[in-house]
């Protein structure tokens, strides 16, 4: 158990994974020891900075969510990955750890021997998916090594396939940088990109919005984020009332607390941007050593926040639009008598922002707004549909927030309920066939797409 706990903690730390990947890549490139040292520490420190910024954002979103719930009388299930996995660990800890370890091994094997050359580096999302798989498969009656192997296979497969599905969109976001998306809200982002291409024009990017000279300070992302979030906090604080806000602020003036919280949120976003720059500066050159020597053509699949600097205005527009979609989705569920999914600000910020970035890449401003709005609707409907397949976890006052978790849970749950264990075994076989059979066709097609993108970019 001690070894398993160590492995779980080790593999759940994206900073360590990124440092390990950089270390292996630099050694494979036979770099001198001082470059190995600095090149390994760079991604680790960069991700720790990113995580620190994300922590500031999350910590400041929590009181905002409470003020909104109190001020606008919202009651229901709040999607939050961290919360539901904390509940799950009480009954599914060992299964989750084993699925995560086996899943990472499958991801590496699939990357080495199939056309899906993506190494999933977002360790905490791997942990969340392992927890979901252990809950759903356990509810269907799987136990022991059978549960672990099936769960690990699905996790490793989706860790390799998920980045590949939307890589053509990710290339448009990054301008051709050789990274992929490693985040299990991916289907929502890719759908936002597809919608963006239908409703808008990518030439009218959110990043080229013309601002009059007197409003030029809004081009500073930190300043504009601070202003928008201060307005959010002040409205929520006024709606919640001074006595309730005082209980959150430790006795500090409610309005001052709201004002400072909005500013701290903006600081967190800026820390994230700086951490991302550190990650990319060292990780991408080091990863080339792995791509050349160990897993040919390997591509790192990284956290969604790594994409934020590519379209900083789309981040804020996507968050706001997604949150509005979540509110409307909640109202629709309430009118239909369904389970009320209260918009969780953490998933709506990170997932909504990323959906806005992808929508902007294909459809500009309109794509960012519409794509993120639809993402917000899905963040209300999908968790509601997924609750019945989570077994005992479905009775908790929270659930998984990001789209991939809900859709995978619904798929496995429905197949298991309708076809039993045989249906799950059949899905394992289909998954392996999807990974290995179309090797030659998919590989040549992917190379052609990448070459086409680079030629168009030039």
UniProtKB/TrEMBL annotation:
It is found in: Cell membrane. It holds the Pfam family EIIC-GAT. InterPro entries: Ascorbate-PTS_EIIC (IPR051562), PTS_sugar-sp_permease (IPR004703). The chain crosses the membrane at residues 12-29, 36-57, 97-114, 126-159, 179-200, 221-244, 256-276, 314-333, 339-361, 368-390, 422-441. GO terms for biological process: phosphoenolpyruvate-dependent sugar phosphotransferase system. Keywords: Cell membrane, Membrane, Phosphotransferase system, Sugar transport, Transmembrane, Transmembrane helix, Transport. It is a multi-pass membrane protein. GO terms for cellular component: plasma membrane. The keyword Transmembrane helix applies. Belongs to the UlaA family. The phosphoenolpyruvate-dependent sugar phosphotransferase system (sugar PTS), a major carbohydrate active transport system, catalyzes the phosphorylation of incoming sugar substrates concomitantly with their translocation across the cell membrane. The enzyme II UlaABC PTS system is involved in ascorbate transport. Homodimer. This is Ascorbate-specific PTS system EIIC component.
């Amino acid at each position: 158990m001690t070894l398993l706990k160590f492995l779980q903690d080790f593999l759940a730390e994206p900073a360590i994974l990124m440092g390990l990947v950089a270390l292996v890549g630099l050694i494979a490139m036979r770099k001198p020891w001082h470059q190995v040292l600095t090149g390994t520490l760079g991604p680790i420190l960069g991700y720790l900075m990113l995580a620190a910024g994300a922590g500031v954002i999350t910590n400041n979103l929590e009181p905002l969510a409470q003020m909104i719930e109190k001020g606008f009388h919202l009651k229901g299930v709040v999607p939050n990955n961290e919360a539901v996995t904390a509940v799950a660990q009480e009954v599914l800890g060992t299964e989750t750890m084993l699925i995560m370890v086996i899943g990472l091994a499958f991801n590496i094997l699939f990357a080495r021997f199939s056309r899906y050359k993506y190494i999933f580096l977002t360790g905490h999302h791997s942990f969340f998916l392992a927890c979901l798989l252990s809950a759903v498969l356990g509810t269907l009656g799987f136990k022991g090594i059978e549960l672990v192997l099936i769960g690990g296979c699905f996790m490793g497969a989706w860790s390799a396939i998920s980045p590949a599905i939307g890589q053509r969109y990710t290339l448009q976001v990054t301008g051709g940088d050789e990274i992929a998306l490693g985040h299990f809200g991916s289907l929502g982002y890719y759908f936002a990109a597809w919608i963006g291409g239908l409703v808008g024009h990518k030439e009218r990017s959110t990043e080229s919005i013309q601002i009059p000279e007197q409003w030029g300070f809004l081009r500073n992302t930190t300043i504009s984020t601070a202003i928008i979030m201060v307005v959010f906090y002040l409205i929520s604080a006024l709606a919640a009332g001074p006595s309730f806000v005082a209980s959150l602020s430790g006795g500090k003036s409610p309005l001052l607390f709201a004002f400072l919280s909005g500013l701290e949120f903006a600081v967190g976003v800026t820390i994230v941007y700086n951490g991302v720059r550190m990650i990319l500066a060292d990780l991408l050159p080091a990863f080339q050593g792995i791509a050349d020597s160990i897993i040919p053509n390997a591509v790192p699949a990284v956290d969604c926040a790594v994409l934020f600097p590519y379209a900083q205005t789309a981040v804020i527009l996507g968050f706001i639009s997604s949150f509005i979609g979540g509110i409307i989705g909640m109202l629709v569920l309430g009118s239909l008598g369904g389970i009320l999914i209260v918009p969780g600000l953490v998933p709506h910020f990170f997932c909504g922002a990323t959906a806005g970035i992808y929508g902007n890449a294909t459809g500009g401003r309109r794509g960012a707004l519409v794509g993120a709005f639809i993402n917000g609707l899905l963040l209300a409907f999908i968790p509601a549909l997924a609750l019945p397949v989570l077994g005992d976890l479905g009775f908790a006052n929270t659930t998984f927030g990001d789209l991939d978790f809900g859709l995978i849970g619904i798929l496995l749950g429905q197949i298991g309920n309708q076809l039993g264990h045989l249906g799950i075994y059949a899905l394992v076989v289909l998954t392996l066939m999807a990974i290995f059979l179309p090797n030659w066709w998919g590989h040549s097609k992917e190379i052609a797409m990448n070459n086409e993108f680079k030629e168009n970019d030039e």
